[in-house]
Amino acid sequence: MVVNFTSMTLGERGVLAESRLQICHSKLNRQLRSDLTVSRTDAHCRLSAWRLRNSRRPAKTQPALDRTEHSSESVHMPTTLPLQPTLWRTCRVLANRTRLEMFRLLVQEPGQKVCAVARRLGRPRSLTSEYLRALEARGLLTARRVGRCVEYRLSCATNGSASACLVTALRALFQRETTAVEVVFRLATAFTHPRRVEIFRVLQNGPHSLGQLRAKTRISAWALVRHLRKLEARDFITQQGGLYAAVDCTHGIQKELARLAREK
């Protein structure tokens, strides 16, 4: 039907406009209700599919209770395969005075919880937890959950891991030296880069000139000189007459780090 607006009064035009507006609102409400019904149906289907998938998954096994402790809430932290630490990554963890302070505290008082270590050293609990996990990841500490807390202690020297001898050497040094933190920090920074480990291994075959080291390691001259200076400053190599040679390390933590650097 064709409506002639010119022949309508102002009131009739208003009534017509209001009628059309109501028709539009009605259509819009029907469309919204239809979309909502589809959304609810889709959400129900997704939820049913998720429940079906989870019902087929095997149940997770709970960690075994530690019968050696008196608390029924004491459980062993889940462990993975025996860790084979990379020396330069381990040295990067050790080249931090705060982590070394935490290690020393655990040497003196084994079995400390994260909150206790944070309180004793005046560090934030989140930072303490992160640093202790880093030491654990390198095989230097072991963790055990007790209730809602995590308890850390030094790794057992008889567990057969690659870091067992390093833990033994660190324990002996911290028990003997009051300046152990600075000693370990200084020596650990010698091998915080994989190229320095590679250079030290090459020098195990005898003295080398700078050119010979460049040919064997394929390291640029500028970087090679920088790495050699670091190793020399940490007393792992010497330089005489243009030749670089490895030092025969025979004592403590320096000997253990040199042994780990020689291993492939």
Explain the overall architecture.
It is a single chain. By secondary structure, the chain is of the alpha+beta class. It is elongated and about 115 Å long. Helix content is 58%, strand content 10%. It is built from 11 helices and 7 strands. Among the domains are: 74-183, Arc Repressor Mutant, subunit A (Orthogonal Bundle); 193-262, Orthogonal Bundle (Arc Repressor Mutant, subunit A), CATH 1.10.10.10. The strands form 2 sheets. Strands 1-3-4-2 form a 4-stranded antiparallel sheet. The chain has a 3-stranded antiparallel sheet with strand order 5-7-6.
Keywords:
single chain, Arc Repressor Mutant, subunit A, four-stranded antiparallel beta sheet, 7 strands, 10% strand
Backbone CA Rg: 34 Å
CATH top level class name of the domain at 74-183: Mainly Alpha
Summarize model confidence as the mean pLDDT.
81
Largest sheet, strands/sense/barrel? 4 strands, antiparallel
Portion of residues in beta strands equals 5-15%
Low-confidence stretches: 62-84
- Specify the number of helices: 11
The multimeric state of the shown protein is single chain
Task: Name the structural class.
Answer: alpha+beta
**CATH topology value of the domain at 74-183:** Arc Repressor Mutant, subunit A
Architecture per CATH nomenclature, i.e. the level-2 architecture of the domain at 74-183 = Orthogonal Bundle
Task: Tell me the number of strands.
Answer: 7
Give the distance, in angstroms, between the N- and C-terminal Cα atoms. Answer: 93 Å
Q: What spatial order of strands do you see in the largest sheet?
A: 1-3-4-2
- Per the principal axes of the C-alpha atoms, what is the gross shape? elongated
* CATH superfamily annotation of the domain at 74-183: Winged helix-like DNA-binding domain superfamily/Winged helix DNA-binding domain
Percent helix:
55-70%
